[in-house]
């Protein structure tokens, strides 16, 4: 097995505690690499390195234009190594090679986009209402950024979190999920090759209670950006608040995918399948609640079940496989528990509902694509995030019903609307309480568009031009141009 090392201050190094743990391939069920078990001492070293890079040496004096050139060079290196990086991610998280390769090939766009933005972060001269003063604002990096990424798309999350942070001039310490750390550690070699100064990028791997908590609570960290469950997100938020750190949280979802009777039903079926069964349902934007107008509900569900039955389950490295294994044993058990909960609540299973078995599936954690009907929105299966290939079907009669049901959850990450009526589509985008709404499509993302939610789905936005503001502090500068001494220095000017 390959033994990995931490990446601190521009070098790979062993963990201070001298411990490693195995990372397991979800398809084979076998360990394939050893990951360093970092701890507080390693976090201290990484934050110290990031702090030095921020205030000393080449990064501290580098122009924004030069930063942008390094970022674009990094994008080129990711593009050149996309296939090997994607294969590592598949071994680690079990998602389809087709999906992970697509993500990694798209990953460089964040470095190109934010690399171009780096030298366009401008302050402003303020025409102040007081005489004899020149006033202007500047924007400066917030400081050392702690980036905590989730196990379902590690490299994509690095791009989302780190590209705007680096463009802003920050330095980063990344803590990937203990289940999927390998690709992040491989990626660090590319940052070194691209020419980033030592300490700008650092990675400390390990477990949340040890490494993650030490990083979030470290006094040298100014900003925390986290992707994960709402439960862990609350803990991160509370810990960061004790240090008055700035926080961005991209958390869970229970997104409604809403189909009206006038929709292109074949396109809607494909969109619903993509929304819940792609990535084995292990995505925060999963359209896990299908709201379908009652006039077409039965016919639509029949089409949906028919397409669901065609899904091939198996080795995620194979091009003809549609659904791979669940990434972690705890997540697999959670999904199976929710299937039992749904059955106990009275929901009727019309597809799947069991562990997937068969040739080639013996060692992995596979769940059949599952569809429940006769679901009401107050059931746990409709209110709580499953994070797996489990769909709840809920009927509605009117547009107002769809809005009411769609918004009746604690989450507000995403929503989908399927209709040929453009007026209805626009009304729904305004009425739905979600950070992102897709109309006649689903699960599209771009480096140009903000990504994030409201309510219990998080705080802040990733991607898009405005996301760089999450990593900047505004400084106000006042310069007197007068030679006169104030008449009364004891009062505010």
UniProtKB/TrEMBL annotation:
<dbReference type="GO" id="GO:0016620">
    <property type="term" value="F:oxidoreductase activity, acting on the aldehyde or oxo group of donors, NAD or NADP as acceptor"/>
</dbReference>
<dbReference type="InterPro" id="IPR029510">
    <property type="entry name" value="Ald_DH_CS_GLU"/>
</dbReference>
<keyword id="KW-0558">Oxidation</keyword>
<dbReference type="InterPro" id="IPR016160">
    <property type="entry name" value="Ald_DH_CS_CYS"/>
</dbReference>
<dbReference type="InterPro" id="IPR016161">
    <property type="entry name" value="Ald_DH/histidinol_DH"/>
</dbReference>
<feature type="active site">
    <location>
        <position position="250"/>
    </location>
</feature>
<comment type="similarity">
    <text>Belongs to the aldehyde dehydrogenase family.</text>
</comment>
<dbReference type="Pfam" id="PF00171">
    <property type="entry name" value="Aldedh"/>
</dbReference>
<protein>
    <submittedName>
        <fullName>Aldehyde dehydrogenase</fullName>
    </submittedName>
</protein>
<dbReference type="InterPro" id="IPR015590">
    <property type="entry name" value="Aldehyde_DH_dom"/>
</dbReference>
<dbReference type="InterPro" id="IPR016162">
    <property type="entry name" value="Ald_DH_N"/>
</dbReference>
<dbReference type="InterPro" id="IPR016163">
    <property type="entry name" value="Ald_DH_C"/>
</dbReference>
<feature type="domain" description="Aldehyde dehydrogenase">
    <location>
        <begin position="17"/>
        <end position="477"/>
    </location>
</feature>
<keyword id="KW-0560">Oxidoreductase</keyword>
